[in-house]
Specification:
This protein is α+β, with helices and mostly antiparallel strands. The chain has helices at about 10-25, 100, 150-175, 220-225, 255-270, 305-315, 335-340, 360-365, 385-390, 390-400, 405-410, 480-490, 515-525, 565-585, 595-605; strands spanning about 45, 80, 115-120, 125-130, 140, 185, 205-210, 215, 245-250, 295-300, 320, 345-350, 355-360, 375-380, 430-435, 450, 455-465, 470-475, 530, 535-540, 545-550, 555-560. The longest helix is centred in the N-terminal third of the chain and has 24 residues, at about 150-175.
Length: about 600
C-alpha cells in the first residue's frame, strides 16, 4: 500500500484511491496485496550498521562474565561494550549502576551491553563512555504477507486507531533530538525498560543518568531532576538529582520517527469520509442499556461473526455469549485431580486474602465437600509459565471454542498485541485459569473477585460449574469509574482515603447488595448484572469496573486482548496508573501500549 503515501498524490487523489482499494478488498480474492503482520519476520526494525549486542538478563547463559582481553599494544585497550554486570567488574562504586549498587535481585544491570569501557592491561577499568548515534538509519521491514480478502477492510480501522494514538505521542519523541549529547541504544531482547520514577514502560525516548543508570520517561524528567541531592539516603538513588549527569536517550532514530509521523498524518488526513465498517447490529440506546439486569446483550456462539462482534464492541458495553462448544472430557475437578493432583499451587481465601500452599488435588477435592469453612480460589493459574505449554490439551479446546478468536487470541489479526515482536518482552495477556469455590453466604461476603478494572479488554469463559447457579457479574461503565471511586472513598468503611491508589485499582472492596442500593441512591449510577453459566463467555471492555460472586464452585479461563475499538481507553488507563505510581509505586506497566501500537503500525502500513 506504498502508493497511499506517495507525496506526489493530492489529498483528493489519495481519497479516491482509498475508496477504490476498499471496494476491491470487499470483492476480490487473496491475490489483492494488502499488508499483514508476518510472524516469521516480526522484528520490524532492520539496520544497515553494526549494533551492540542486546542487553541480556543476568540469567542468560550466553553472556560472558569476563571482559575481552585488552590489546597488548597499548596500556589502555580500545573501548568495548560492557559484557558483564557492574558488580562483576573491577569498577569503583561510583561507576556502578544503581541496580548493581543495591544488589536487588529483581533488577538488571543498566549498563551491560550498552556502556563502553576501556580496560587497562592490569584489568582495571580506565574509562567509561557511551556509543554515539549510528550514522545510518533503520529501515522498516516490508516483508508482509497478504491478508485474506475478508479481512482487508478491517486494516483501515486498525491503522486509524493506532495512528490516532501514536501521532501526538511522537511529537515529544522527535523533540528530544533537539537536546545535545543524545545517546542511542538498540532495544534489547528479553528486556522491558520502565521509568524508574513511575514504572511506565518507555517507548523510545528517555533521560538516562550516565552515572548510575537511573532512567526517566519524558513525562517524569522535570520532576526527577528536582529530587533531593542525597537521594534520601538510598545509595542506589544517590546521584539521581544531578541534572548534569542526565543525557537524552533514544531507541528509534529521528528520521524513522519523522517518517512514520508524516505517514500517520497523511493516513488520518486522507481517511476522513472513508467508511470503516458497513455492518451494524442494533444494540439499543447506550444509556438505557446500563439499567440493572436489563438490556444485557446476549449472543449465541453460532451467531458470533467478526462483524457482529465489532458492532457490539463499538458500544463499549459488556455482553454474554452462550452455547459454546467444549470437550466434555476436560475441565472437571476430577480431570485436574487425575492430571495434576500432586502439583503444588497457592490458593487464596476470598474473605481474608490469606494465602496457603496446597496441592492441586487437595484444592479440587473441596468441590465435592458438602460443608467448608472458607471460600478458596486458585487464580492466575499457571502463575508464570505459558498456559499453552503447561496445559496444551486445555489450550487447544479453549482456542477452538472461544468466541471471536480473531480478536481474542494472541495470533488474532484484530488483536493489536499480535504484532508485538519477540525482540522485546510481550505482555502476558493469558490465558489464565480462575478456579474458585462458591462465595460464602452472608451480608459481609467479599465475593470471588473484588471490584477492579483491567487495563486491557478481556473475555472470561466458564468451563465448569457445580450447579446451575453459576456466577454473577456486576459491571459498571468505564466512564462511571470516577463517580464510583468517589463513592467508595466517602461512603464505604475501610477505604484508604489517604492513599494515592484508587480504591477500584487497589481491589479493596466487594459491593454487597446493600452497598449497591446505597450507591444508586447517592449517585444515580446504574450497571449491568450478568449471570454466567457453564459454556458461557462474558466480554468485559477495558476500564469497566467489575466484580464477581460465584454462586457455585466454578472453573473459568480468561484471556486479555487489545482491540482497535478500545485502544484509546487503554491509553487513558495507562496514564491513570502512571499518575498513581508517581505518588506510591504499586503497579508496573506491563502492557507497553505505545510499543505495541508502533509495531502494529509498522506491520500493517508497510
Amino acid at each position: 500500500m506504498d502508493w497511499f503515501f506517495d507525496p506526489s498524490l493530492t489529498l483528493s487523489e489519495r481519497k479516491a484511491r482509498m475508496h477504490r482499494w476498499l471496494l476491491l478488498a470487499s470483492r476480490v480474492g487473496d491475490d489483492t496485496q494488502v499488508p499483514r503482520f508476518n510472524p516469521a519476520g516480526q522484528n520490524a526494525i532492520a539496520t544497515g550498521q553494526e549494533w551492540p549486542e542486546p542487553r541480556p538478563t543476568r540469567n542468560d547463559s550466553r553472556v560472558s562474565t569476563s571482559l575481552a582481553q585488552p590489546s597488548i599494544s597499548s596500556s589502555i585497550s580500545t573501548p568495548e561494550y560492557q559484557k558483564a554486570a557492574c558488580v562483576d567488574l573491577p569498577l569503583e562504586t561510583s561507576l556502578a549502576c544503581r541496580a548493581c549498587r543495591s544488589g536487588a535481585q529483581d533488577d538488571e544491570c543498566r549498563f551491560r551491553g550498552f556502556r563502553l569501557i576501556s580496560p587497562c592491561l592490569s584489568g582495571a577499568i580506565a574509562a567509561v563512555s557511551f556509543p554515539e548515534p549510528p550514522s545510518t538509519t533503520h529501515s522498516l521491514s516490508e516483508d508482509c504477507a497478504p491478508l485474506p480478502h475478508s479481512e482487508k477492510i478491517h486494516v483501515v480501522a486498525k491503522l486509524t486507531a493506532v495512528a490516532q494514538l501514536l501521532l501526538p505521542a511522537l511529537k515529544p519523541e522527535i523533540e528530544l533530538f533537539e537536546h545535545p549529547g543524545l545517546l542511542y541504544q538498540r532495544p534489547s531482547a528479553g528486556f522491558r525498560t520502565t521509568c524508574d520514577k513511575c514504572l511506565t514502560s518507555i517507548f523510545s525516548g528517555a533521560w538516562l543518568c550516565t552515572c548510575c543508570g537511573f532512567e526517566s520517561c519524558l513525562d517524569c524528567y522535570s520532576a526527577v531532576i528536582r529530587l533531593p541531592s542525597d537521594g534520601g539516603g538510598d545509595l542506589s538513588n544517590a546521584c539521581a538529582s544531578d541534572s548534569h549527569h542526565f543525557r537524552p536517550l533514544a531507541r528509534l532514530t529521528r528520521q524513522e520517527l519523522i517518517s512514520e509521523s508524516n505517514r500517520m498524518s497523511a493516513w488520518l488526513e486522507s481517511f476522513s469520509g472513508v467508511p470503516q465498517d458497513s455492518s451494524h447490529v442494533p444494540c439499543g440506546d447506550s444509556q438505557s442499556m446500563r439499567n440493572v439486569e436489563k438490556n444485557v446483550i446476549t449472543v449465541t456462539a453460532s451467531d458470533m461473526t467478526s462483524e457482529r462482534f465489532a458492532s457490539i464492541w463499538s458500544h463499549g458495553a459488556p455482553f454474554l455469549v452462550r452455547d459454546l462448544a467444549s470437550d466434555p472430557r476436560l475441565w472437571s475437578p476430577q480431570y485436574f485431580m487425575d492430571a495434576f493432583g500432586p502439583d503444588a499451587c497457592t490458593v487464596e481465601d476470598c474473605q481474608t486474602g490469606n494465602m496457603e500452599d496446597v496441592t492441586v488435588s487437595a484444592f479440587f477435592k473441596q468441590f465435592s465437600k458438602p460443608s467448608r469453612k472458607a471460600s478458596l480460589k486458585l487464580k492466575d493459574w499457571p502463575p508464570t509459565s505459558a498456559f499453552e505449554e503447561v496445559f496444551p490439551e486445555l489450550y487447544r479446546d479453549f482456542a477452538r471454542t472461544v468466541p471471536a478468536p480473531e480478536y481474542v487470541l494472541r495470533t488474532g489479526i484484530f488483536n493489536l498485541a499480535a504484532h508485538f515482536p519477540e525482540l522485546g518482552v510481550p505482555p502476558d495477556l493469558g490465558p489464565k485459569m480462575y478456579n474458585a469455590l462458591a462465595s460464602m453466604p452472608g451480608s459481609d461476603t467479599r465475593g470471588s473477585t473484588r471490584l477492579h478494572s483491567d487495563i486491557a479488554d478481556a473475555v472470561n469463559v466458564m468451563k465448569y460449574s457445580s450447579t446451575a447457579d453459576g456466577a454473577v457479574w456486576t459491571i459498571f461503565a468505564a466512564e462511571d469509574s470516577e463517580t464510583l471511586s468517589t463513592f467508595l472513598r466517602t461512603h464505604v468503611e475501610g477505604s484508604q482515603t489517604d492513599s494515592t491508589i484508587d480504591p477500584i485499582d487497589g481491589q479493596q472492596h466487594y459491593l454487597t447488595s446493600s452497598m449497591l442500593t446505597t450507591l444508586r441512591e447517592k449517585t444515580g449510577l446504574t450497571w449491568w448484572e450478568i449471570v454466567q453459566r457453564t459454556n458461557e463467555a462474558v466480554f468485559i471492555p477495558a476500564g469497566c469496573p467489575h466484580q464477581v460472586l460465584n454462586r457455585s464452585h466454578c472453573v473459568k479461563i480468561a484471556i486479555d486482548f487489545v482491540s482497535p475499538q478500545n485502544i484509546a481507553r487503554c491509553h487513558h488507563l495507562t496514564a491513570r496508573f502512571r499518575a498513581q505510581n508517581v505518588g506510591e509505586k504499586w503497579k508496573e506497566d506491563v502492557l507497553q501500549l505505545k510499543t505495541m501500537a508502533w509495531h502494529a503500525w509498522v506491520a500493517l502500513s508497510h
